[in-house]
């Protein structure tokens, strides 16, 4: 055997394991995708991650003089990532935080709030909904100065999830013209006709599905911020509207 043939033989022998390894990878991918695909997709749905929408703040509807006819008022749900705070921070501030939570919500004693946070931290949970009651913006600003919470989202673990509520300051006045829009995108009046402009553009954030089937935001994950909707200026004179509707009653 000459030198050239000897080299070619060695190259082929060296290439053979790589070829077999490549075939094995392709085979395994095929098995996972086509044979076991449904199994793994189901598992991912149970414990996986998913980008979910962050709703944009809906634009205001204004009268001819700039008075608010319809606006979105932000409220917040309070949650905590108990893994964020350091041991020293938790030791120093947890008693005070639990006391403030109990005093504010008036539904559970201080000891319950404290134990709930400690249990969640011990078990490695990354999200604990502290109370289902919605708080307003001023209450949120106050809570942001509480122990542990004052360290912010990254170091303290405080999580405030915004929930917008549509409010019409003049009540029934102009209600037919202002209209409404429901969760399915159906409605009437200005809210429906100008929905694209008022709605804005939703953002995206990464969520994790919990054991109970609920989706919780991942605090340090990347997100796409929403673009709030445009305000709509109308020619509605609320004073004339009041006179007109009163005359019909």
From TrEMBL:
**Mind telling me which residue stretches traverse the membrane in this protein?**
7-27
Tell me the InterPro entries matching this sequence: Beta-lactam/transpept (IPR050515), PBP_dimer (IPR005311), PBP_dimer_sf (IPR036138)
Per the database record, which ranges form the Penicillin-binding protein dimerisation domain? 54-183
Name any Gene Ontology BP term: cell wall organization
UniProt KW keywords:
Cell cycle, Cell division, Glycosyltransferase, Membrane, Transferase, Transmembrane, Transmembrane helix
GO cellular component term, pick one: plasma membrane
Places the protein is found: Membrane
What is one Pfam family matched by this protein? PBP_dimer
Q: What is its EC number?
A: 2.4.1.129
**Which EC class, in a word?**
transferase
Any GO MF annotation of the entry: penicillin binding
UniProt name for this protein: Cell division protein FtsI [Peptidoglycan synthetase]
Q: Which organism is it from?
A: hydrothermal vent metagenome
